[in-house]
Amino acid sequence: MNNTETSTNTDPKPMILAIETSCDETAISLLQGFRAVSHKVHSQADLHAEFGGVFPNLAKREHGKNFTALLDAVLREGLDLNFDITDTNTSSDLSANIDLTKINEILSREHELQTALVEYLKCLSANKESLRKVKENINAIAVTYGPGLEPALWVGISAAKALATAFDLPLYPINHMEGHIASVLADSEAETDSKNNGHKTEFPAIALLISGGHTELVTVNSWHDYKILGQTVDDAVGEAYDKTARLIGLPYPGGPAISALASKWRANKNQGENVSGNKDQKNNSNQIPEKIFNLPRPMLHSKDFNFSFSGLKTAVLYAVRNRLKELNQEELSEPEKIELAGEFEEAVIEVLIAKTKRAIEETGAKTLIIGGGVIANTYVREKFKTLTENLGIELLIPEINLATDNASMIGLVATLQIMDNKKGLIPGSAEFGELKADGNLRF
Ligand code: KG4
Ligand code: ZN
After folding, report:
1. Is 144 near ligand 1, meaning CB less than 6 Å away?
2. In this structure, what are the phi and psi dihedrals at residue 69, rounded to the nearest 5 degrees?
3. Staple partner for 83: which of 117, 127, 170, 241, CB 3.0–4.6 Å?
């Protein structure tokens, strides 16, 4: 985090300023190679909670409002900048430093972002020492351009174009899902190895990506070669967590709330067995006397590698309704919620593990990569650890804070691309101008 002893970047690894705004997290990260020297995430989850999900135009507005302060914090920390942000003394010849007309044009559709970012760039460029540090240290800008919510993606793309133009840097448009895969490379040693870009991962690998918007099994033949093996035909895993949470009166995002209850359920089960010495839990007052809820394992035995989670959510809906009707209750009791959350998590994990295991066996994968917000769940992490130990293959898993959306993972993909000699988009070029948000971007 403190790569700031010198003002000029003498490290041969590229330094990348990465931006992620595809959903409800505004995230900016400054990376040197595979290591973040500074990274910040601002989550809007609390704001969206009252809608029970992410509201695209609210997300866009919030990204625009929060982006500049986050950028300032990352640049200050990562590059040791200390200019005065309130210094509006712009008497120095700005046009010689930064093309503000062009930048205003790029930001013209992003009102919340435009005012703050332009003011910020004015202050930065008025301080020649800070501007020099930015220009001399940073080698490229990376930004998520899909998949995700297009109004939200546009904020990051416009900001990235403005910064690439201001600092005259190449721009790398990055696939968010590739970011979730690359998240496992954070802080890894970047030994140079022409075969797989410096990381000693054994290929082929299988990647399981489980987030709020996606559930995908991907064959990974190298860090640049991905092919979708299977995916959800309806809801994503995280979405099933979020919807189930809503059905039992838990707040958005539902993943953490459900998993907290599910771990209580597992603790109760274990305790019940230990206390009584058998599986009869009727005499233990902490326990739900009998199993109330039975949930399906959708597509567990289908021959393909696809998933379906909307049936599970519907099963939860009917289970809740039937229970409330049966007992003439208004709401589930706490022990009932605990059991339902536990049964739900078991059903989800059983399907994920079974399909991933078969994908590994059928492709002869030597490595399993798991990524996406649901991987923040410690029980899910443990289950995949056990699976890979049993299969004798390597497991690559991001740190918990890199499981949910962040910008470091976006910068990591750009690092891999630069190591593979891929060129970024040059400000002013036709491709640079044409870069658009692609909400449905696929591998
Ligand atoms: O990857 P991510 O941050 O955003 C998307 O790209 O979708 O994933 C967010 C999803 C949400 O659905 C959230 O409920 C889920 O990840 N999630 C979890 C946990 N923490 C976040 N799901 C299960 N257990 C968790 N601990
Ligand atoms: Zn994500």
Report:
1. no
2. -65, -35
3. 127
* Positions in the chain whose pLDDT score sits under 50: 1-7, 190-196, 274-278, 280-283
φ and ψ of 270, to 5 deg: -65, -45
Mention every residue, 6+ apart, whose C-beta is less than 8 A from residue 280: none
Contact assessment for residue 156 and residue 34, using Cβ atoms and an 8 Å cutoff: no
> Which DSSP symbol is given to 152?
H
* Per-residue pLDDT, 1: 37
Q: Give the chain's mean pLDDT.
A: 90
Classified as helix, coil or strand, 98 is coil
Whole-number Å distance between alpha carbons of 19 and 31: 11
Specify the DSSP element, H or E, that contains 182.
Answer: helix 176-182
Amino acid identity of residue 107, one-letter, is L
pLDDT of the residue at 2: 41
Of 404, 409, 440, 441, best ligand 1 pocket probe by most atoms within 8 Å of the beta carbon:
404
pLDDT per position as a tens digit, 271-323 = 875 443 445 444 455 555 578 899 999 999 999 999 999 999 999 999 999 99
Q: How far is the CA of 1 from the centre of ligand 2 (A)?
A: 24
Nearest to 299 by CA among 290, 288, 308: 308
Residues 228-282 have pLDDT tens digits of: 999 999 999 999 999 999 999 999 899 999 999 999 999 998 887 544 344 544 4
Kindly state the tokens that stand for 422.
């891929």
Counting ligands in written order, which one lies closest to the CA of residue 374?
A: 1
Question: What Å distances lie between residue 180 and 255, 277, 356, 404, CA to CA?
Answer: 17, 43, 17, 9
Q: What is the pLDDT of residue 409?
A: 98
Distance CA 27, CA 18 (A): 8
Going across the sheet that includes 367-371, the strands are: 225-231, 215-222, 205-210, 367-371, 394-396
Give the pair of three-digit tokens for residue 236: 């994503």
Q: Is cis: bond before 256, omega within 30 of 0? A: no
Angstrom distance (rounded) from CA 343 to CA 268:
13
Measured CA to CA, the distance from residue 339 to residue 264 in angstroms comes to: 9
| Packing angle, helices 237-247 and 254-276, rounded to 10 | 80
Spatial distance between the Cα atoms of 105 and 78, rounded to a whole number of angstroms? 28
Q: Give the distance (Å) from ligand 2 centre to CA of residue 439.
A: 13
Reported pTM: 0.91
Task: Please report the sign of the dihedral spanned by the C-alpha atoms of residue 427, residue 432, residue 436, residue 438.
Answer: negative
